[in-house]
Task: structure prediction
Amino acid sequence: MNTSRRTLLATTLLVPLALAACANTTVTVTPDSIIAVVSSIITGAKGALAQVETAAPSLIPAASQSTIATALSDAASVASALVSGVSATSGASIVQKVEGYINTVLGILDSAPIAGLIPAPFSTAIAAIAFLLPTLETFVTAYLGTSAVSASIATVQTRTRLLAAAPVQITSVAQAQAILATYAEK
Result:
C-alpha cells in the first residue's frame, strides 16, 4: 500500500470518530459534568460485559475476562477520586488514567478471537463506550493540553470498528449515556 492509499484509509477510518468527537463537544467538559460520563462508562461496561459473559460464556476467553475485569476495577478505583469539587487539573489527570484502562478493554474486545462477535444488543453498549471516549479526551485536553491525549491511530481504528459494529447509530452523548444506563450494575 503506498502512502496516499494509507492516508486515504486512515482518513476514511477517522471520519466517523471525528464526527463523534464533534457531537461530544456539545457537552460541557467541567470536572463536575465529566463525572457522569466516567461513571456511565464504567458501570455500563461492567454491566454489559457481565451480560455478554452470561449470554455467550465462551465468547471472551478466561484470560481476557480477567484482564478486562482488572482494567475495569482499576478504572473504578482511580475514578473514585473524581468527586464533585475536584480541581480541573486533578480531574483531568484522573480521567486520563480512566481512559487508558477503558482503551485497554476496548482493545481486547476488538482483537481476536472476540473482534466482531459481540452480539447485539451488547455491541451497542460497547459502541456507546467508544463514542464517549472523545468526550474524556476533550476534557483532558482542555485542562492538561493536547500532549496529554495520546490516542494512537490503532486506538482510533478500534473505536471506529466498534462504533460501526453497533446495530444502532449513536449520535449524542445523552444517547450513549442512556444506552449504558440500561446496563449499569444495580
Q: What stands out?
A: Residues 94 and 168 are 30 Å apart (CA to CA). DSSP finds seven helices and no strands in the chain. The radius of gyration is 16 Å. The chain has one domain: 30-181.
